Design the sequence.
């Protein structure tokens, strides 16, 4: 235990003893009507049950999503346009018939999963890919976090970037996964109206798994 954590523990003990002391003295003075207020805490959000979720299973990976969400690329009627060779998958909580690729508005969420092949014989690496992404996005956003983690069993980088001007405030979240000769790129954007959907996005991403 560090000095700081020890100091915190001692302070906590003093605070608890003080509360008990106040309760005892108060009880002696005013009787049983003296009640120490119970501190309130924010309730922890309850995860959404996933037993009835739909399953997308492609060549390389699988992921689950809520039954009332949409899977793309879309047809004009918002149905899944299956392509076994597609390198892009979209999971969205909205779709507009006749205009299925309409940009995100309001509280809507769209998760995009992209696959980028690395030509390692030509010198392509995961780090070079990340550097190219930084160069691509640096003019339009500010990087808030840049965290290395394990995602679906592989090395990954998670970034959060902020775009803000007088008309829009957005947080773009990216997960870049380094798997053999490919980079799997997952991205989604939250705004002030959709930020409370971050939990369900986390649940969707927690179901992501590689098939080989």
Sequence:
């Amino acid at each position: 235990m560090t000095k700081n954590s020890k100091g915190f523990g001692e302070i906590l003990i003093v605070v608890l003893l003080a509360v008990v002391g106040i309760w005892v003295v108060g009880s002696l003075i005013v009787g049983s009507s003296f009640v120490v207020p119970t501190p309130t805490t924010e309730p922890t959000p309850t995860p959404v049950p996933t037993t009835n979720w739909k399953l997308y299973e492609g060549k390389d990976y699988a992921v689950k999503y809520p039954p009332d969400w949409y899977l793309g690329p879309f047809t004009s009627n918002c149905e899944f346009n299956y392509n076994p060779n597609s390198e892009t998958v979209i999971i969205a909580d909205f779709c507009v018939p006749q205009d299925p690729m309409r940009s995100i508005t309001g509280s809507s969420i769209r998760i995009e999963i992209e696959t980028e092949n690395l030509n390692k014989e030509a010198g392509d690496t995961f780090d070079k890919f990340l550097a190219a992404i930084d160069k691509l996005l640096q003019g339009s956003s500010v990087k808030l976090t840049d965290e290395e983690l394990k995602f679906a069993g592989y090395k990954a980088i998670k970034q959060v970037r902020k775009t803000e001007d007088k008309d829009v405030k957005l947080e773009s979240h990216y997960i870049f996964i380094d798997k053999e000769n490919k980079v799997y790129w997952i991205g989604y954007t939250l705004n002030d109206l959709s930020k409370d959907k971050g939990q369900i996005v986390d649940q969707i991403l927690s179901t992501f798994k590689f098939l080989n």
